[in-house]
Write a structure and sequence with these properties.
homotetramer, alpha/beta, Rossmann fold, Dihydrodipicolinate Reductase, domain 2, 2 domains, 10 helices, 27% strand
Chain lengths: 323, 323, 323, 323
Amino acid sequence: MTDVRVGFIGCGNHATQNLYPALRYAGMDLAAVCDLDKRKAQRVARQFGAHRTYQDLGTMLDEMDLDAALVCGPPELHFEAALAALERGCHVWTEKPPAPTLAETEQLAAYAAQVGRILQIGFMMRFAPAYVRLKQIIESEEFGAPSLIEAKYCCWNVSNHRHHLIYYGVHILDLVRHLMGEVTELAVLKCERDGQLANAISLRFASGAVGLVNFSSLQPRVQERVEVTGESALAIVDNRVNLTYHRPGTNEFGETTWSRPDFAIPNQANSTLELQGYLPELSHFAAAVRGEAEPAATIEDGVAVMRLLDLVEQNEGEVVQVG
Amino acid sequence: MTDVRVGFIGCGNHATQNLYPALRYAGMDLAAVCDLDKRKAQRVARQFGAHRTYQDLGTMLDEMDLDAALVCGPPELHFEAALAALERGCHVWTEKPPAPTLAETEQLAAYAAQVGRILQIGFMMRFAPAYVRLKQIIESEEFGAPSLIEAKYCCWNVSNHRHHLIYYGVHILDLVRHLMGEVTELAVLKCERDGQLANAISLRFASGAVGLVNFSSLQPRVQERVEVTGESALAIVDNRVNLTYHRPGTNEFGETTWSRPDFAIPNQANSTLELQGYLPELSHFAAAVRGEAEPAATIEDGVAVMRLLDLVEQNEGEVVQVG
Amino acid sequence: MTDVRVGFIGCGNHATQNLYPALRYAGMDLAAVCDLDKRKAQRVARQFGAHRTYQDLGTMLDEMDLDAALVCGPPELHFEAALAALERGCHVWTEKPPAPTLAETEQLAAYAAQVGRILQIGFMMRFAPAYVRLKQIIESEEFGAPSLIEAKYCCWNVSNHRHHLIYYGVHILDLVRHLMGEVTELAVLKCERDGQLANAISLRFASGAVGLVNFSSLQPRVQERVEVTGESALAIVDNRVNLTYHRPGTNEFGETTWSRPDFAIPNQANSTLELQGYLPELSHFAAAVRGEAEPAATIEDGVAVMRLLDLVEQNEGEVVQVG
Amino acid sequence: MTDVRVGFIGCGNHATQNLYPALRYAGMDLAAVCDLDKRKAQRVARQFGAHRTYQDLGTMLDEMDLDAALVCGPPELHFEAALAALERGCHVWTEKPPAPTLAETEQLAAYAAQVGRILQIGFMMRFAPAYVRLKQIIESEEFGAPSLIEAKYCCWNVSNHRHHLIYYGVHILDLVRHLMGEVTELAVLKCERDGQLANAISLRFASGAVGLVNFSSLQPRVQERVEVTGESALAIVDNRVNLTYHRPGTNEFGETTWSRPDFAIPNQANSTLELQGYLPELSHFAAAVRGEAEPAATIEDGVAVMRLLDLVEQNEGEVVQVG
């Protein structure tokens, strides 16, 4: 397996905490980093072994002969850097949201299709091992057809509703689509308390299944829980890492399986890089670039999610068609 | 404290499993039991120490000079027996549903008001200690105003949707109203799988809070979970007995309290009679009859719940006003 | 199946809370109750449907033509009543301890053997469904030979060490023997804090397995947990009702099964009468009396446990042989 | 705060997985790395930003003017590298075990004392946040004097008992000493199954408290759990990251607090680098080198633990004095 030669645009906290440390496991070679802040770029380059540093992304893309660009910064940067990299023939992975608006996201999707390059979005949740396993379970014959999903992704108070939606809301909406398929109807009931919103979202899917999503900024810390009902079956992921599967059947012992990471073992499989989904999403991107995996969490998903997100933002107590 | 003199109408499985055994702790004296099946009545009378047995409820009510009647049977019986007992000046506790239909439930409510007698409905969930404590928590100043409730009450396959609603649906709808107040808007998205329904219900409350209720017959066994969000606070009851309270505040240790019954102690507080709510609901009824407690879970609540239930049954993907 | 005709000696709190309510499910017919306190006996007789009441146990045993006697009171009563009942040809179930001392327990065992009657002791833990299932698991081929048991049975402060041992210690020692077989060596390290004892007990079994038992009165409430290690397998019962089984194998998902009672279902299987072991132990006794089951938790087990208990009381920091 | 200038000896899997990634948060500047395998050293140097690489540790120590050396390799290397680094005036952090034998560990301790340098051992467990919090709890007035500790640190099958002891046994013995103080008596009951050992260890501490330790290689994966009893109080750490504290008092709601990491938040506090203890132990070492913290987990602790470990290895069913 040849490492994918990448340039990374953005050297902020999230990137250095959760993305750069994953690169060396993800089948990538960090050829260059780019940040407006030269000292940040130099520090990151040294800490994660990049060959070169840049302050201008165009220059990096022109000079470095990259297979792919990775982007993590504000939404405007995602959009501009993705366009610039696609233009040079690079495949692109960018953190979410792919762009500040739906229109720009659609523009990105069109351009990626035109140039025939992979444009993967940072929907790491769907790559977290517990959700990968959840998807396998709900697609199994034993589980039956998924009938209902409940998903909660709630957090502490936020300062800006739009940011809350495009930074956090995209995650849970992508995960719900990933697990259940296309959304065809949607309604949102909202409660505002002290400037914060509780969004009670109900959904219908093309499959006939239905859904309930709690997306709010009125819970302490970050709370995440997903429950999928099948036909006499129930599978739950709690706190991103704990999986409980109530298998179809009766009340007898042994019908429920359960897993949690063994934190007493300090190996890669039990590291947060893996469990939270960052390492697997980057590994997947690298594999897709090498042609060894189907592209996933693509800009098409990004478009669908940004569309849902606008509906969530604008909807108030009315069941509307999606699409 | 004087025991309330009661006659019990109905000697079926649920009654003998969960209600009769609670009477001796609930401040009641079981004066008589009544069942069409004479041998059942006699067995129950002996096992739970009733003085007399009857096959006809009117005769029992006429002869026994009761303070109150307890009723547990099919919905038609609840309605007829409650009317008959109220007519004789008895206070009444009846299992849910109070009657087969909303119209009859309203008739009961009107009659109880007219005769000035207590008519309590078997909404035991709100008396379960974990929910009593949940209500205290969500009404505390620390918790902030409740903003969103998620409630799940799901079970195995059922043979009849209407029965599912009037036997099970009433419980979760009463609990949600009890915790959050009056419902003003409601919508239901439904998924049918192999003749079973998943009901994804969204709600708005008069308080401004919103809600998401999963009421389905597509999960294994019986699954129950209630989560209430406040303002940066979250309280959860799982499996009716486990309470977790994420108190408002930061990520530090010690912010979450948790309780479960200690099943290694075989005392009344840790018995399922108490934990599931049957004993406390009957104790409350006895206290109300003695004038020592406010009536609760009354026929007015029954009317409100039967009204919601009809809306749940009829609604499909439309936000409608309740009222 | 014919009900076993029983007389019950003792009408105290524990009996009326946990034993009398189980009789009607246990295949027994309560012919008579006996208590020095006539009003207690009469109340219990009425509440649980006994035909007759007595204040003198000899008179009851002489007059009632019983299949079996049930005994629940102070240890002296267990001993005397068991002897008296065996003498009249009754089978006997008695609460633990079977007698105040090892010598008297041995006397009971000898007499029961002589008269050929069943003498079952109230070791209900081994009949609790979670422990029944635990035993099945640890005896399975998959589990491998049990190698180590950890057991905790701790409680709040006690007023009398001897009472603590004969009322509580007998339970955990019986359970450990029941699961792991005969004890051959034992040592106790003790810590006294404010008049309370923490007993750190280590054990060796005839099977070669070893054990660690924490029997202390320095924990809040009552805390119970048992973990058995096999060969690359681990099975745990926590709080008497929750069972976790880490099956042999690797770190992959799905290797752990887990069960808990569904408290949202108010049926017999999920009632504390069943879950705590009282109902199953009485059912077993009735079955043994009818010749449909092997006697279990017999006075022979009682002797073995009382012997261990004396060693625990007297031992301080020395590994001694048992037997 | 000035970064501590360190050289790291050893570029193996564990080091690159769990230690090197922690350096950039730990207040250290990675001046050089050393490994016999030149390519490994170069790769690590690039990935973690070291200035220089060496194949010979003496040369590195002579040339680089280091504040401190970090060592991670086989036990023989720990011993030799620590001696060599102390000789050059460096402070040293080394993975456990500090040396292959007790005698060599004592030699290291004597030499570190002679040259007045810090020699910290890789006992990361005591730095894991859940254990830090556990220690605070058990030292609080509310908790009362710790009376009993139960600790389990079990794993899958091992190929070599001595390795199992010096690589894994040291961790749990250090943690037990760290929490409870000096051990004065010890006994081990052993069960061998298919070449693997279950060690049932009982302990007495200088404080009067007692302990039970299960150290075995017959459980699936790695299982870790520590319970400390106080006076009517109980605190538990499970799976290294989950903390439950049953506070002293009665059976009422709210007496138990509980915490777990929020894995839905990808920040440093919830990363496995932090939660498993690797980052905090290195941060502590750096702080101690800068004179801002007391040395902890020192070679004196290493000597005490290696002494206990020899006793565990040699003991069979006899209570012996330690020291």
